[in-house]
Amino acid sequence: MNTIQRNALLNTTGGSSGTQGSGSWFEAMAEAWGKALDAKADQISDKSAQIGAAQADKPADITQLTAMSLEMGFLSNSSHTALASVGSALETMARKQ
User: Fold this and answer.
1) Under DSSP, is residue 14 helix (H, G, I), strand (E, B) or coil?
2) Domain residue spans in the chain?
3) What is the mean pLDDT of residues 71-84?
């Protein structure tokens, strides 16, 4: 299972404060979500290719592919929710300053 690790955020920004990197921690979070989604999409593509190459669509393989696709949907929805929530919070903070 792919997880977004705290280190992925720190490595993208160049440090814990984000001052050494070229982007903000918000951009780092978005990039980390993107990498997790890309990795899941690659797994789905690989599994699909395996099923196609074997020309065998066993129920177990189809079920596994379906589960992977549903996980991709969950990750996609979660990334959207996280980014929208943080973006909204940042917008609110910016208005109060």
Assistant:
1) coil
2) 6-96
3) 95
